[in-house]
Amino acid sequence: MIQTSNSTYDWVASTFEVFEKNLNGEAQTNVHALRKHAMERFAVIGFPTTRDEEWRFTNVAPIAKTCFSPVLAYSRGATAADIERLSFARLRSHRLVFVNGHFSSELSSLESLPHGVIIGSLAAALKSHDDLVNQHIGKYASTEKDAFTALNTAFLRDGAFISIPDKVVLEDPIHLLFISTGSDDSFVSHPRNLVLIGKQSQISIVERYVGLKNNVYLTNAVTEILAGENSVLEHDKLQDESTNAFHVSSLHVHQLEHSNLVSNSISFGGALARNNVTSMLAAEGVECTLNGLSLATGRQHVDNHTTIDHSSSHCNSHELYKSILDEKARGVFNGKIFVRKDAQKTDAKQTNKTLLLSDEATIDTKPQLEIFADDVKCTHGATVGQLDDEQIFYLRSRGIGETDAKDILTFAFASDVINRVHVEALRNQLDAMIQARLRQGRLSESVE
Amino acid sequence: MLEIKNLHASVNGNEILNGINLRVSAGEIHAIMGPNGSGKSTLAGVLAGREAYEVTEGEVTYMGKDLLEMSPEDRAREGIFLAFQYPVEIPGVTNTYFLKAGLNAIRKHRGLEQLDAVEFLSLVKSKMELVDMDSSLLNRPVNEGFSGGEKKRNEIFQMAVLEPKLAILDETDSGLDIDALRIVADGVNKLRSKDNAVVVVTHYQRLLNYIVPDFVHVLVDGRIAKSGGKDLALALEEKGYDWIREEVENAQVNG
């Protein structure tokens, strides 16, 4: 049967109606106007096809033709033991837990917070701090061209809201745990996170997306971050959805003068994952580091799209994305770097490396540099290869078995990215997860 | 310990080894010399189990077992060690991690306890002194950014830790300055015992001033053309390899 864009729009429109009715007394709010505008945008754009350059290698037809419905109310669904297991060992953190997109106060825990710091749910902030939220939400993640951001915005309801005043250094990371628990097929959550970081403040955020069951569901997340002047942010994301899940997420960071962003995007799970990371280097002297690691096997499809927009002078960006693909896995990397007319003295470096562990795994990699300034330094490089026979032989000649030798080399390839994660508990957990997956001989099998 | 009979081997269909016969017993040092392209490194590679080499004829027995049937890792576990001519760099794997994995795999094979981190470190420290190696190299990725001399020293250091029965040094001396050469040779000499054997593959006689061989074999066109004592190495240094080739040709004419 041929799917028309109308029929896919139909299920979205009808679920939107149900969703809208479920929102009590919000019809006149600013955020609802934002939702309705986003819905109108989605009606125009529709789900992308592979004819769309941004989606050339990633076919989302399986998402478009499934009637995903949002979970309208919170139910617990996860146990304290689940949380214990999914919160990184010994990680002292401010932890917000979301179940099927809804904030769970009973599963969340906050350490004591400095004066003025807000860490809580967006749903609550829409009531208690609506001015602040309205001032920023939707400003950094545009609904104009991206169907999934439009959808997320149309169904915007909950997520994390973090506001850090000026000159605050949070020692413990903020851990955002998004759990999909539903036992029925075809439900969707649209987590929406908004993070505002004041001048000269410093925080780390760990987002983890995980599924407890092997059903088909969609996570469509959007995170908007405003990094204030001279602020320091580490954003770590672990995409660890269950085997049959779809995951689309977009991180948008708006960087002000001298701010410093390190984003580590780790993608392990899901049947299909699309991770978008966009940073707008909006003022002078910004540092932007984007790292990524994807592990995929079976028939997994993992797509990383990054955009670094140098719109001001004297900014540095450094990007390293790596993929390890086994069996029939398919990877996509698209790295855009824009250097605008005024962005003189830009220093941008992009590296993409892929390790193919089978003859049937494939990667499509595309660096995309658009440079409009003349006094800049921009480099990019992409390599695709297999494990090195000479290295394998060297290890074996010292008594290490062939499988172990290959695992050691594969792990070394991955640890190049993992070692860039500063949150120690997360780094150790990632090490252990990769080791366990290698031992099982299948990269994606759940280890927990 | 090692007995090679009529060994023929080829790479990509080109025959490189053309009937090698060699017998090495415990406690002995053998030097294998020869001009470029005579098959020295191929012989070392075949003994270590390099897959690019295809053995077309002959047999190799090591400690009573068929060596050619064994995987490279099993050869190492049974006590064979190859010091590489060109040690490969392995980014992301530290020297210590690598060596501990190797040592413990060998120990497991021999039914010995695994060494824990503390035991391993104290072993490593004593062996580093043997080759005068800087301890900062331990936590660096294997051979990455090492100088030529550091790489060769690292090979001998690994040999010291793994304590092989049969060590094969493949041109370990090439490219070394005289100080590094002495250190490497000292290391090898200190590891010598009546229970192990060393096969030194080299292009130059210089190394043999420091590692004194019991036997010298000259490899020409993939076969051992002449064997003798350490004096043979001196004769080669003085006269080159051509006279050996002539001898072989004369012998063929007369025979």
Overview of the molecule:
The complex is a heterodimer of chains A (448) and B (255). Chain A is built from 10 helices and 21 strands. Chain A has one domain. Chain A is an alpha/beta fold and 448 residues long. Chain B has 8 helices and 12 strands. In chain B, strands 6-9-10-3-11-12 form a 6-stranded mixed beta sheet, sandwiched between helices. Chain B has a 4-stranded antiparallel beta sheet with strand order 2-1-4-5. The longest helix of chain B has 15 residues, at 95-109. Chain B is globular, with a radius of gyration of 18 Å. The mean pLDDT of chain B is 92. At the A-B interface, helix 8 and helix 9 of A face helix 2, strand 7, helix 3 and strand 8 of B.
In a nutshell, what does this entry contain?
The complex is a heterodimer of chains A (448) and B (255). Chain A is of the alpha/beta class.
Radius of gyration of chain B: 18 Å
CATH architecture group name of chain B? 3-Layer(aba) Sandwich
Query: What is the name of the CATH superfamily of chain B?
Result: P-loop containing nucleotide triphosphate hydrolases
Q: What is the arithmetic mean of pLDDT of chain B? A: 92
The largest pleated sheet of chain B is described as: 6 strands, mixed
Oligomer: heterodimer
**Quick one: overall form of chain A?**
globular
Distance between the termini of chain B: 32 Å
Biggest sheet: strand arrangement of chain B: 6-9-10-3-11-12
Chain pair sharing the greatest interface? A-B, 23 and 32 residues
